[in-house]
């Protein structure tokens, strides 16, 4: 699925929601894995009818890198081989290939912001879209679930908008230390002040959660 198609699908979903008579008084949205970014884009681009509670479970809000080195699943070869494979992935990362819409190279932020069609756009890292900020702040709650041993989301802190410190790919910084937060490009700083941000953590791999957790921590607290 390419990035332009993904944005088209966001708009298509917006139209379906707007025309659904059962949703006119508002609705809750739960996104799993990549669906989390998709539904956040819906919240930012389509304020009516209102999304009330947005729940992201194992989302990749700063990037998606499959387990291994920068998107290379379990690179078990030599360092040279892994680095070569990563170079090839970087070469095609911002064209319309699978996962390109979520690729975010911490070693080349300028190219990411310039070439990324989907992720940088919905993270408000291109031209600042004030409407995105206003629409996201209309949420009653924004719930983000992180899996501490996530092997599909690298770094796992991306589920909480954390990311690598600029210019390297070792040290991870939390949301509050990112430029996205400090410059309040999505309104997250204000949302936290308003008590709308909720950070939940599960000691497990990607999307490994129990029914008990889902009912007690998600449904009972944010859906009922």
Automatic annotation (TrEMBL):
Belongs to the palmitoyl-protein thioesterase family. It comes from the Eukaryota. Keywords: Disulfide bond, Glycoprotein, Hydrolase, Signal. SUPFAM superfamilies: alpha/beta-Hydrolases. GO terms for biological process: receptor-mediated endocytosis. It is an enzyme of class 3 (hydrolase). It comes from Trichinella pseudospiralis. GO terms for molecular function: palmitoyl-(protein) hydrolase activity. InterPro entries: AB_hydrolase_fold (IPR029058), Palm_thioest (IPR002472). One of its GO terms (cellular component) is lysosome. It holds the Pfam family Palm_thioest. This is Palmitoyl-protein thioesterase 1. Its EC number is 3.1.2.22. Residues 1-15 form the signal peptide.
């Amino acid at each position: 699925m390419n990035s332009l198609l993904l944005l088209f699908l966001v708009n298509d979903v917006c139209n379906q929601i707007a025309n659904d008579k059962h949703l006119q008084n508002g609705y809750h949205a739960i996104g799993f894995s990549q669906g989390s970014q998709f539904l956040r884009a819906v919240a930012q681009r389509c304020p009516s009818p209102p999304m009330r509670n947005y729940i992201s479970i194992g989302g990749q809000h700063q990037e998606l890198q499959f387990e291994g080195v920068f998107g290379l699943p379990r690179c078990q070869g030599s360092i040279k081989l892994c680095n070569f494979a990563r170079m090839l992935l970087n070469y095609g990362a911002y064209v319309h290939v699978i996962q390109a819409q979520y690729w975010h190279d911490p070693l080349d932020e300028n190219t990411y912001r310039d070439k990324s069609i989907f992720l940088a756009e919905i993270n408000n890292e291109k031209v600042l879209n004030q409407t995105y900020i206003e629409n996201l702040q209309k949420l009653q709650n924004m719930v983000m679930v992180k899996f501490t041993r996530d092997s599909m989301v690298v770094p796992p802190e991306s589920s909480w908008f954390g990311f690598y410190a600029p210019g390297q790919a070792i040290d991870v910084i939390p949301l509050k230390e990112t430029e996205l937060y400090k410059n309040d490009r999505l309104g997250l700083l204000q949302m936290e002040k308003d008590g709308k941000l909720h950070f939940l953590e599960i000691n497990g791999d990607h999307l490994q959660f129990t029914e008990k957790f889902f009912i007690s921590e998600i449904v009972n607290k944010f859906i009922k």
